[in-house]
Amino acid sequence: MMSRVEINPHISGHELLRLLQICFLFVTASVPGANSDTDPSTGNVKTIDRLHAGLFLNYNKNIQPQFEGVPTPVGLGVTITYLDVEEMSGKLNVHCWQNIRWRDEMRMWKPSEYDNITEIALRTREVWKPDIQLMDGNDGGQLDDNHVVLTHDGHFQWTPAAIYVAYCNLNMINWPHDQQTCKLKIGSWGLKDIKSDVNFMGKGDTSSSKKIDSSVPSTEWEIVESSAKFVSQDYYGYMEYTLTIQRESSIYKAIIYTPASCIVILALAAFWLPPHMGGEKILINGLLIIVIAAFLMYFAQLLPIVANKTPLVVLFYSTTLLFLSFSTIIEVAVLYLATAKHKRRIPDVLKKLLHGKLGTWLLLSQFCVSLEPNSNQTKEMDEHLYENGKDADDDATNPLDINPNEVSVSRMIQFDWVLLATAVDRVFFVVFSLAFMTLAIICAV
């Protein structure tokens, strides 16, 4: 008689149910980013974990998601927080926040089925994300690895911080109030469909350029105009952002324009010194030349030598240096006219001009009135000494030995040459005033 063998199950029904729950928790915990927190009293999975497990159970983060049967387009927006320009190297440094969006038709849910959860936060390593970088710069940019927000309608939103360093063709002719136009080409080598962020939600025409949302706290640069357009190539695409920035800084008025004004004023004031003070005039011009040379050396250290055009400020200082060189030569000639012992009279034509309307226009009439009485007084003193003299042989240096007519003539000749030197100073004062005014107008345009 065969004995009956009874099979005793090792796992009961309750234990089997418990094992299934553990397996489910293990599966959800193995999904990247899933939270396996449970209620220890009931063993129930939280709603957020259940939603996460349902959305990313069969998700492959290495494959670009699809929307409406085609690879999902990517919306790209830029919010600039700070920018700076390196003049010597021709680089534009941009600190910004990027607003990157895309949709996945397989990552949608009904909030009513999941305790009205409308969005969840994910780590960037859990999901697919576009490889956004600067296409034409010397730095690919550093994207911050922050969270990605997924909404119930399948929208992914990623807002990383980035630093881009792009080359810019600088035009320094109007420095330090120059306006530069630079371009940022931001995109991906593997995406062909990138849209402006303002158009990604279906607002506006994607073919038209849109302005960039910008907030620049820089004390030197201000964005005056910006636009964005999508450029599609054979196997990649990018957004081309065009930035027009204006340099505005009050410090340049103190270190450039104020010294320039003082240099011009001192250079013109030297023409009003008396003709016999030619040494002081030459000293003033020499000091101004040294100051301008120091400024030109400062500009050479501050500005790129290979710029397209020389800045007008540098042209102003270099031209002023040339003017001061000519002014120094003129002052040497004026000093010679005023101090040399002349034996010949000035031409009658010049004498008539100096004592006529030209002399009046050059303010020489007061100069004549102030010197002529001294000459008459000297002549009267000489005649008085001649009349009261007793013995001409008593003193070899007696003024009686000097012919008073010759003394008067020599003084008048010298006076006319001094008057001519003064007229030369006044004429070149007008010429240099017009020259500096013309130079300032040209450099201010």
Keywords, please?
445 residues; alpha+beta; Acetylcholine Binding Protein, Chain: A; Methane Monooxygenase Hydroxylase, Chain G, domain 1; 8-stranded mixed sheet; 10 helices; rod-shaped; disordered N terminus; signal
Question: Topology of this protein?
Answer:
Layout: H1 13-30, H2 47-55, E1 66-67, E2 70-71, E3 74-86, E4 91-103, E5 119-123, E6 133-134, E7 147-151, E8 155-158, E9 161-167, E10 179-188, E11 194-196, H3 197-200, E12 213-214, E13 221-232, E14 237-247, H4 251-269, H5 278-302, H6 312-339, H7 348-354, H8 357-361, H9 365-387, H10 404-444
Helix pairs in contact: 4-6, 5-6, 6-10, 9-10
Would you report the number of β strands? 14
| Estimated helix fraction | 40-55%
β content, as a range? 15-25%
CATH class of the largest domain reads: Mainly Beta
Global Rg: 44 Å
CATH topology description of the largest domain = Acetylcholine Binding Protein, Chain: A
Tell me the number of structural domains.
Answer: 3
End-to-end C-alpha gap? 122 Å
Q: For this structure, what is the CATH homologous superfamily of the largest domain? A: Neurotransmitter-gated ion-channel ligand-binding domain
Largest sheet composition: 8 strands, mixed
Low-confidence parts, pLDDT < 50 over ≥5 residues? 1-14, 28-44, 199-211, 369-407
Please name the CATH architecture of the largest domain.
Distorted Sandwich
Order of helices and strands: HHEEEEEEEEEEEHEEEHHHHHHH
Mean pLDDT comes to: 75
Number of helices: 10
* Cα shape: rod-shaped
Output the structural class: alpha+beta
GO cellular component, one term: membrane
Organism: Drosophila ananassae (Fruit fly)
Pfam family, one: Neur_chan_memb
Domain Neurotransmitter-gated ion-channel ligand-binding: 50-248
